[in-house]
Amino acid sequence: MTVTLLGPAQIRDLAERAGVRPTKTLGQNFVLDAGTVRKIVRQAGVEPGMRVVEVGPGLGSLTLGLLEAGADVVAVEIDPVLARLLPSTVAEHAGLHPDATSPDEPMSDEPVVLRDDEGRARLTVVLQDALEVTALPGEPPRALVANLPYNVSVPVLLTFLERFDSLDHALVMVQAEVADRLAAPPGSRTYGVPSAKAAWYAHVRRTATVGRSVFWPVPNVDSALVRLDRREPPTTSATRLEVFEVIDTAFAQRRKMLRAALAPLFGSNEAAAAALAAAGVDAQARGETVDVEGFARVAEQLAGTRRGAPAGTVGP
């Protein structure tokens, strides 16, 4: 199958013909540069036959790059105009054919499927808000590869890691500042809620900076690529929701010492200090110094107090 990637003139022509005007509301910035597309696909480790979910395919630049590498793509698009445009763009540039049973236009409950000459489903277009997706058609995806809209990048990423445990890795392009937060280690200035929650699911690293000139329209900030490789979450008797509750509370007033920041959860500064001591976490430290394993141990203490055990008496 021969795939032709989109260039700047083709992208602008597609947008004009469809009456598409990129909107800040949806965080739309379309990638113009084929070299950047191939870099994303390469760093994502896409292999022929790999099932990949793409969030926010837009005009199809990255979609075509994934297809060129041999992936089978599920594209989740919130914009109905773009969702209707994508199948025809891919048919023209990748030689795929709409499934005979697919609707003429994408519907939220009726994905559009495009197949290759052998009948293999290579692209499935789903018209839906990514934050509301709870299931995807076809085989479970192994990878998430996306140019994520700036305004929802962290919620989308964490939501997909939570809901689709088949994802063994992700490669996403996000605002550079967001990339720094996701990949930040404990103790760094940018470590916070996104860092700790992402670490629950995966090993995270920033892999490359992407200049703003490869986008249309040109954003006011640089972007970066972030690679996430799934790992087992910390061993703990606390639930993920309990651990995330502790993380959120610890950073709600990040300049406070933990004994004060977590007092609302434990009922008092003294109870919080006792729980922190039992968890092996310095009560005078701040949340930015604690790794996800530390937050998990604190969450175990919280779960114990909610079962009626005095703060600080729950064993490791």
Automatic annotation (TrEMBL):
Cellular localization per UniProt: Cytoplasm
Domain of life the protein comes from: Bacteria
Gene Ontology annotations for the cellular component aspect, listed alphabetically: cytosol
InterPro entries: KsgA/Erm (IPR001737), rRNA_Ade_diMease-like_C (IPR023165), rRNA_Ade_Mease_Trfase_CS (IPR020596), rRNA_Ade_methylase_Trfase_N (IPR020598), rRNA_adenine_dimethylase (IPR011530), SAM-dependent_MTases_sf (IPR029063)
Main location: cytoplasm
PROSITE patterns for this protein: RRNA_A_DIMETH (PS01131), SAM_RNA_A_N6_MT (PS51689)
UniProt record similarity statement: Belongs to the class I-like SAM-binding methyltransferase superfamily. rRNA adenine N(6)-methyltransferase family. RsmA subfamily.
Role: Specifically dimethylates two adjacent adenosines (A1518 and A1519) in the loop of a conserved hairpin near the 3'-end of 16S rRNA in the 30S particle. May play a critical role in biogenesis of 30S subunits.
Name the UniProt record assigns to this protein: Ribosomal RNA small subunit methyltransferase A
Lineage: Bacteria, Bacillati, Actinomycetota, Actinomycetes, Micrococcales
Gene designation per UniProt: rsmA
